[in-house]
Amino acid sequence: MPVVILLRASGWRISDVLNLRYDTCLKRSFNRDKQQHEYSLIGDIPKTQILEHDIPISAEIAALIETQSALAKQISSEAKNPKHYLFPAKTLQRQGRSLTGRSVQNALNRLAVTYNIRGEDEKIFHFGTHAFRHTKAVELINQGMSLVMVQQWMAHLSPQMTLVYAQILAETMRREWEKVEAKVGVRFLEGKPTLIASNRLQGLLTNNTFDPLRIREHRVNIKLPVGNCVKPKDFQCRFVELPCFNCPMHVLTEVDLPWLLNYELQLLERIEIGKQAGNTHWVDANQKLLEEKVRPTIALLRQRETMALEAQDVREYTTEEWEQRLLQRGNRHEQN
Fold first, then answer.
1. What pLDDT is recorded for position 329?
2. What is the Cα–Cα distance from 318 to 301, expressed in whole angstroms?
3. Mean pLDDT of 171-183
């Protein structure tokens, strides 16, 4: 069971989990801001040749590792487990080595027989340890983690490997959406919340608003952290990414330039992922953000200008007030 729990929590391959060493696989640090300990799982990923791969884990998973470490030391001496495997083999034939993935899978399948665990076809369920990795990757994507971050978490060498987990079944999405359209909803009309009965809500959900194929290909989320989005295909949402870029009170200065340069690199990486996946919507959306907002802002900040993303008449200061403030700043620079 500790092996299965770590498979599910980490999303690592069975070989990566069984290769963990009890003296190096757990890192603990203290977060002064949150006043709490934070934990990481550390291990090598031989398939992609990544050493000391580091992912965050919960305190509960860390406690499990500490318990398993104590058990590993108890059941295997230094002589029998010189490499300090977290899950050492117990048989003489494999002394000094770890458990095998096959032995874990066989144990799970014996469990299925013992407890009559059956699949959708009504046959005894057959476990595959790689399914835990798939489940974790899909979970991270559904929770809103970017594909770039999921790629790093799963230690994938290429974006294509990560995109496999981003496939969303249209039937599943349709079933979830049907649950929504059977209820009364609230929609904001002219800034005011307005009740919408289920029959009116259903009228909003035409093929133009809910297109499973489009959603699957373009990774458009219709379920938000709070509520649901019924944005038509041709509707341009001002808040699709980094809402502050659309706020008249948002002002960037020279100190923000390093962050913007890093954000530019992130957008270029996203665009490349979209190109490799053949996802034109993903590419266009990020390219537009890059060319229309991020790069023009960088260019202005490099001229040592203060940058606001809306016209002056909707910002906090009038034109005359801005001119006065700029003049005062110029005088201070001359004095310095």
1. 59
2. 21
3. 55
With 0.85 as the threshold, say if the pTM is over it: no
The partner residues of 228 in beta bridges, in order of sequence, read: 223
What is the structure's pLDDT at 118?
Answer: 94
Q: Coil, strand or helix: which one is 276?
A: helix
Position 244, amino acid: C
The DSSP symbol for 293 reads I
Q: Residue 134 corresponds to which tokens in the numbers above?
A: 């798939």
Instruction: Give CA–CA dist 319/107, Å, rounded.
Output: 74
Residue 81 CA to residue 73 CA, distance in Å, equals: 8
Give the separation between CA 62 and CA 28, rounded to whole angstroms: 9
Predicted pLDDT at 11: 94
Q: Which of 163, 132, 136 is nearest to 148 (CA)?
A: 163
Helix or strand run (H / E) with residue 180: helix 170-181
pLDDT given at position 206: 46
CA dist., res. 254 & res. 245, Å (int): 16
Is 94's pLDDT higher than 70?
A: yes
- Rounded CA-CA distance 5/87 in Å is 13
DSSP 37: E
In the predicted structure, residue 202 carries a pLDDT above the cut 50: no
Longest distance between any two alpha carbons in the chain, whole Å: 85
Kindly state the average pLDDT of the residues 259-269. 86
Residue 215: pLDDT band with limits 50, 70, 90: very low
Pairwise CA distance, residues 210 & 319, whole Å: 45
| Separation between Cα atoms, residue 159 and residue 152, nearest integer Å | 10
Which residues, in sequence order, are bridge partners of residue 31? Answer: 36
| Non-local CB neighbours of 269 within 8 Å, separated by 6+ positions | 148
| Mean of all residue pLDDT scores within the chain | 76
Q: What is the C-alpha to C-alpha distance for residues 327 and 204, in angstroms, rounded to an integer?
A: 53
3-state secondary structure of 53: strand
If you search the block for the tokens 């403030």, which residue do you land on?
325
